[in-house]
Amino acid sequence: MSQFVPLKVKSITPQTDQAICIAFDVVPEQQEQFQFQPGQHLTIRHLTEAGEIRRCYSICSYAGKEDISIAVKKIDQGQFSNWANDHLKVGDVLEVMPPQGVFFQKAAKMGGQNYLGVAAGSGITPILSIIKQVLFEQPEAKFTLLYGNRSWKQTMFAEQIMDLKDQFKERFQLINIFSREFNDSELMNGRIDEEKLKQLFDFDVLETSFDHVFACGPDEMMNAVESTLPNYGIAKEKIHTERFHTGQARKRSVEADANRKEEKVNIILDGRELIVSVAPR
Protein backbone atom coordinates (compact mmCIF):
# COMPACT_ATOMS: atom_id res chain seq x y z
CA MET A 1 0.00 0.00 0.00
CA SER A 2 1.23 3.45 -0.81
CA GLN A 3 2.43 5.48 2.16
CA PHE A 4 2.44 9.21 2.74
CA VAL A 5 5.77 10.95 2.28
CA PRO A 6 6.74 14.37 3.69
CA LEU A 7 7.40 16.81 0.84
CA LYS A 8 8.61 20.37 1.26
CA VAL A 9 6.77 23.13 -0.57
CA LYS A 10 9.22 24.64 -3.08
CA SER A 11 7.06 27.42 -4.50
CA ILE A 12 3.54 28.82 -4.36
CA THR A 13 2.28 30.69 -7.42
CA PRO A 14 -1.06 32.52 -7.38
CA GLN A 15 -3.24 31.58 -10.36
CA THR A 16 -6.30 33.68 -9.56
CA ASP A 17 -7.47 35.41 -6.39
CA GLN A 18 -9.00 32.06 -5.42
CA ALA A 19 -6.38 29.53 -6.53
CA ILE A 20 -2.68 28.72 -6.14
CA CYS A 21 -0.19 26.34 -7.75
CA ILE A 22 1.98 24.41 -5.29
CA ALA A 23 5.31 22.95 -6.46
CA PHE A 24 7.11 20.38 -4.33
CA ASP A 25 10.81 19.89 -3.70
CA VAL A 26 11.42 16.19 -4.34
CA VAL A 27 14.85 15.18 -3.02
CA PRO A 28 16.94 12.58 -4.91
CA GLU A 29 15.92 9.64 -2.70
CA GLN A 30 12.24 10.44 -3.41
CA GLN A 31 12.57 10.83 -7.17
CA GLU A 32 11.65 7.26 -8.06
CA GLN A 33 8.54 7.30 -5.85
CA PHE A 34 7.32 10.55 -7.39
CA GLN A 35 7.81 9.84 -11.08
CA PHE A 36 4.47 10.56 -12.68
CA GLN A 37 2.45 10.33 -15.86
CA PRO A 38 0.23 13.12 -17.19
CA GLY A 39 -3.27 13.00 -15.77
CA GLN A 40 -2.24 11.45 -12.45
CA HIS A 41 -3.04 12.93 -9.04
CA LEU A 42 -1.56 13.33 -5.57
CA THR A 43 -3.36 12.65 -2.31
CA ILE A 44 -2.61 15.11 0.50
CA ARG A 45 -3.08 14.21 4.16
CA HIS A 46 -3.67 17.16 6.47
CA LEU A 47 -4.42 17.34 10.19
CA THR A 48 -7.02 19.81 11.41
CA GLU A 49 -8.48 20.47 14.84
CA ALA A 50 -11.34 18.19 13.84
CA GLY A 51 -9.03 15.36 12.77
CA GLU A 52 -7.37 14.01 9.63
CA ILE A 53 -8.58 14.93 6.15
CA ARG A 54 -7.39 13.69 2.76
CA ARG A 55 -7.75 15.49 -0.54
CA CYS A 56 -6.80 14.50 -4.10
CA TYR A 57 -5.37 17.06 -6.52
CA SER A 58 -4.38 16.48 -10.13
CA ILE A 59 -0.78 17.06 -11.18
CA CYS A 60 -0.54 19.99 -13.58
CA SER A 61 3.16 19.86 -14.53
CA TYR A 62 5.16 18.28 -17.34
CA ALA A 63 6.85 15.04 -16.27
CA GLY A 64 10.62 15.16 -16.22
CA LYS A 65 10.87 18.84 -17.11
CA GLU A 66 8.99 20.64 -14.34
CA ASP A 67 8.68 20.25 -10.57
CA ILE A 68 5.76 18.09 -9.58
CA SER A 69 2.92 20.55 -8.94
CA ILE A 70 -0.75 20.71 -8.07
CA ALA A 71 -3.30 23.51 -8.11
CA VAL A 72 -5.62 24.19 -5.18
CA LYS A 73 -8.70 26.33 -5.68
CA LYS A 74 -10.76 27.64 -2.78
CA ILE A 75 -14.17 26.05 -2.47
CA ASP A 76 -17.00 26.91 -0.13
CA GLN A 77 -16.34 25.29 3.27
CA GLY A 78 -13.25 23.57 1.86
CA GLN A 79 -11.14 22.72 4.88
CA PHE A 80 -7.86 22.11 3.08
CA SER A 81 -8.34 24.37 0.06
CA ASN A 82 -9.06 27.45 2.16
CA TRP A 83 -6.25 26.71 4.60
CA ALA A 84 -3.74 26.17 1.79
CA ASN A 85 -4.68 29.38 -0.02
CA ASP A 86 -4.62 31.47 3.16
CA HIS A 87 -1.85 29.97 5.28
CA LEU A 88 0.48 27.59 3.40
CA LYS A 89 4.04 28.95 2.97
CA VAL A 90 7.15 28.02 1.00
CA GLY A 91 9.20 25.68 3.17
CA ASP A 92 6.18 24.08 4.84
CA VAL A 93 5.93 20.30 4.67
CA LEU A 94 2.87 18.40 3.45
CA GLU A 95 2.24 14.68 3.68
CA VAL A 96 1.81 13.42 0.13
CA MET A 97 1.05 10.00 -1.32
CA PRO A 98 2.97 9.06 -4.52
CA PRO A 99 1.19 9.66 -7.85
CA GLN A 100 -1.83 7.56 -8.78
CA GLY A 101 -4.34 7.43 -11.62
CA VAL A 102 -4.68 6.25 -15.23
CA PHE A 103 -6.46 9.19 -16.90
CA PHE A 104 -4.00 9.37 -19.83
CA GLN A 105 -2.54 5.85 -19.94
CA LYS A 106 -5.25 4.18 -22.05
CA ALA A 107 -5.01 6.88 -24.72
CA ALA A 108 -1.21 6.71 -24.67
CA LYS A 109 -1.35 2.97 -25.40
CA MET A 110 -3.88 3.44 -28.21
CA GLY A 111 -1.91 6.27 -29.80
CA GLY A 112 -3.21 9.27 -31.70
CA GLN A 113 -2.31 12.59 -33.31
CA ASN A 114 -5.38 14.78 -32.80
CA TYR A 115 -6.60 15.54 -29.27
CA LEU A 116 -9.38 17.53 -27.63
CA GLY A 117 -9.36 18.69 -24.01
CA VAL A 118 -12.56 19.95 -22.38
CA ALA A 119 -12.14 21.64 -19.01
CA ALA A 120 -14.00 23.99 -16.70
CA GLY A 121 -12.38 25.90 -13.84
CA SER A 122 -9.92 23.81 -11.87
CA GLY A 123 -10.64 20.88 -14.18
CA ILE A 124 -7.78 22.29 -16.26
CA THR A 125 -5.15 20.74 -13.97
CA PRO A 126 -4.89 17.19 -15.39
CA ILE A 127 -5.65 18.47 -18.90
CA LEU A 128 -2.74 20.93 -18.73
CA SER A 129 -0.30 18.15 -17.90
CA ILE A 130 -1.62 16.11 -20.85
CA ILE A 131 -1.40 19.10 -23.21
CA LYS A 132 2.27 19.62 -22.36
CA GLN A 133 3.07 15.93 -22.77
CA VAL A 134 1.40 15.77 -26.18
CA LEU A 135 2.84 18.99 -27.60
CA PHE A 136 6.39 18.41 -26.38
CA GLU A 137 6.60 14.65 -26.96
CA GLN A 138 4.61 14.25 -30.21
CA PRO A 139 5.97 16.68 -32.82
CA GLU A 140 3.19 15.96 -35.32
CA ALA A 141 0.27 16.00 -32.86
CA LYS A 142 -2.39 18.69 -32.54
CA PHE A 143 -4.30 19.67 -29.41
CA THR A 144 -7.52 21.70 -29.08
CA LEU A 145 -8.49 23.02 -25.63
CA LEU A 146 -12.09 23.99 -24.93
CA TYR A 147 -11.88 25.84 -21.61
CA GLY A 148 -14.79 27.24 -19.63
CA ASN A 149 -14.44 29.92 -16.94
CA ARG A 150 -16.32 32.83 -15.46
CA SER A 151 -13.90 35.35 -16.95
CA TRP A 152 -10.31 35.72 -18.15
CA LYS A 153 -9.36 37.05 -14.70
CA GLN A 154 -10.66 33.82 -13.13
CA THR A 155 -8.86 31.58 -15.65
CA MET A 156 -6.33 29.32 -13.97
CA PHE A 157 -2.97 28.92 -15.76
CA ALA A 158 -3.88 31.62 -18.26
CA GLU A 159 -0.24 32.70 -18.68
CA GLN A 160 1.05 29.15 -19.17
CA ILE A 161 -1.67 28.40 -21.69
CA MET A 162 -0.94 31.56 -23.68
CA ASP A 163 2.79 30.69 -23.67
CA LEU A 164 1.94 27.27 -25.12
CA LYS A 165 -0.28 28.90 -27.70
CA ASP A 166 2.60 31.17 -28.78
CA GLN A 167 5.10 28.31 -28.82
CA PHE A 168 2.87 25.89 -30.75
CA LYS A 169 0.93 28.23 -33.02
CA GLU A 170 0.19 25.59 -35.65
CA ARG A 171 -0.60 22.75 -33.29
CA PHE A 172 -2.43 24.21 -30.29
CA GLN A 173 -5.88 25.79 -30.54
CA LEU A 174 -7.52 27.51 -27.54
CA ILE A 175 -11.28 28.08 -27.36
CA ASN A 176 -12.37 30.11 -24.32
CA ILE A 177 -15.97 30.06 -23.12
CA PHE A 178 -16.82 32.70 -20.50
CA SER A 179 -20.01 32.73 -18.42
CA ARG A 180 -19.61 36.22 -16.90
CA GLU A 181 -17.43 38.05 -19.39
CA PHE A 182 -19.01 38.60 -22.77
CA ASN A 183 -17.19 37.94 -26.02
CA ASP A 184 -18.06 39.61 -29.31
CA SER A 185 -19.33 36.26 -30.52
CA GLU A 186 -22.37 34.96 -28.66
CA LEU A 187 -21.11 31.47 -29.45
CA MET A 188 -18.25 31.94 -26.97
CA ASN A 189 -20.50 33.05 -24.10
CA GLY A 190 -22.15 30.83 -21.51
CA ARG A 191 -21.22 27.45 -20.09
CA ILE A 192 -19.97 24.23 -21.64
CA ASP A 193 -23.19 22.24 -21.67
CA GLU A 194 -24.98 20.05 -24.20
CA GLU A 195 -26.36 22.99 -26.18
CA LYS A 196 -22.98 24.74 -26.32
CA LEU A 197 -21.22 21.60 -27.55
CA LYS A 198 -23.82 21.13 -30.28
CA GLN A 199 -23.34 24.73 -31.41
CA LEU A 200 -19.56 24.40 -31.53
CA PHE A 201 -19.78 21.26 -33.66
CA ASP A 202 -22.57 22.57 -35.87
CA PHE A 203 -20.67 25.78 -36.63
CA ASP A 204 -17.44 23.79 -37.29
CA VAL A 205 -15.58 25.40 -34.40
CA LEU A 206 -14.90 21.85 -33.24
CA GLU A 207 -14.10 19.10 -35.70
CA THR A 208 -15.21 15.51 -35.35
CA SER A 209 -11.97 13.69 -36.15
CA PHE A 210 -10.38 13.67 -32.70
CA ASP A 211 -8.44 10.54 -31.80
CA HIS A 212 -8.97 11.16 -28.09
CA VAL A 213 -10.99 13.50 -25.89
CA PHE A 214 -10.04 14.30 -22.28
CA ALA A 215 -12.63 16.02 -20.10
CA CYS A 216 -12.48 17.17 -16.50
CA GLY A 217 -14.99 19.33 -14.71
CA PRO A 218 -18.37 19.44 -12.97
CA ASP A 219 -21.10 16.89 -13.59
CA GLU A 220 -23.22 18.94 -15.99
CA MET A 221 -20.30 19.45 -18.36
CA MET A 222 -19.14 15.86 -18.10
CA ASN A 223 -22.60 14.48 -18.79
CA ALA A 224 -22.84 16.76 -21.82
CA VAL A 225 -19.49 15.56 -23.18
CA GLU A 226 -20.36 11.89 -22.71
CA SER A 227 -23.82 12.19 -24.27
CA THR A 228 -23.14 14.68 -27.08
CA LEU A 229 -19.80 13.69 -28.63
CA PRO A 230 -20.88 10.17 -29.69
CA ASN A 231 -23.68 11.81 -31.71
CA TYR A 232 -20.95 13.52 -33.76
CA GLY A 233 -19.08 10.32 -34.51
CA ILE A 234 -16.59 10.32 -31.63
CA ALA A 235 -16.59 6.79 -30.19
CA LYS A 236 -17.21 6.40 -26.47
CA GLU A 237 -13.92 4.54 -26.00
CA LYS A 238 -12.10 7.66 -27.19
CA ILE A 239 -13.68 9.82 -24.48
CA HIS A 240 -11.71 9.85 -21.23
CA THR A 241 -13.24 11.62 -18.24
CA GLU A 242 -12.35 12.67 -14.72
CA ARG A 243 -14.99 14.19 -12.49
CA PHE A 244 -14.87 16.52 -9.53
CA HIS A 245 -17.55 18.11 -7.38
CA THR A 246 -17.34 21.52 -5.75
CA GLY A 247 -20.98 22.10 -4.94
CA GLN A 248 -21.86 24.05 -1.83
CA ALA A 249 -22.93 22.12 1.22
CA ARG A 250 -26.69 22.38 1.68
CA LYS A 251 -27.71 24.03 4.94
CA ARG A 252 -29.91 21.84 7.13
CA SER A 253 -33.22 23.06 8.50
CA VAL A 254 -33.85 23.34 12.25
CA GLU A 255 -36.28 20.42 12.00
CA ALA A 256 -33.73 18.26 10.18
CA ASP A 257 -31.10 19.02 12.82
CA ALA A 258 -33.48 18.06 15.62
CA ASN A 259 -34.32 14.73 14.00
CA ARG A 260 -30.77 13.69 13.11
CA LYS A 261 -29.42 10.51 14.63
CA GLU A 262 -26.05 8.79 14.58
CA GLU A 263 -25.46 7.31 11.13
CA LYS A 264 -23.11 4.75 9.59
CA VAL A 265 -21.03 6.01 6.68
CA ASN A 266 -19.07 3.76 4.32
CA ILE A 267 -15.75 5.26 3.20
CA ILE A 268 -13.50 3.67 0.57
CA LEU A 269 -9.97 4.89 1.17
CA ASP A 270 -6.79 3.50 -0.36
CA GLY A 271 -8.69 0.40 -1.42
CA ARG A 272 -10.03 -0.26 2.10
CA GLU A 273 -13.70 0.07 3.03
CA LEU A 274 -14.20 1.70 6.42
CA ILE A 275 -17.50 1.99 8.29
CA VAL A 276 -17.54 5.08 10.48
CA SER A 277 -20.14 6.22 12.97
CA VAL A 278 -21.02 9.86 12.49
CA ALA A 279 -22.74 11.66 15.33
CA PRO A 280 -25.06 14.61 14.63
CA ARG A 281 -23.67 18.11 15.22
From TrEMBL:
Keywords attached to this entry: 2Fe-2S, FAD, Flavoprotein, Iron, Iron-sulfur, Metal-binding, Oxidoreductase
Pfam family, one: FAD_binding_6
Cofactor annotation: [2Fe-2S] cluster; FAD
Domain (FAD-binding FR-type) ranges: 2-106
GO molecular function: 2 iron, 2 sulfur cluster binding; flavin adenine dinucleotide binding; metal ion binding; oxidoreductase activity
InterPro entries tied to this protein: Cbr1-like_FAD-bd_dom, FAD-bd_FR_type, Flavoprot_Pyr_Nucl_cyt_Rdtase, FNR_nucleotide-bd, MRET, OxRdtase_FAD/NAD-bd, Riboflavin_synthase-like_b-brl
CDD domains: PA_degradation_oxidoreductase_like (cd06214)
Protein name: Phenylacetate-CoA oxygenase/reductase, PaaK subunit
Organismal lineage: Bacteria, Pseudomonadati, Pseudomonadota, Gammaproteobacteria, Moraxellales
Gene: paaE
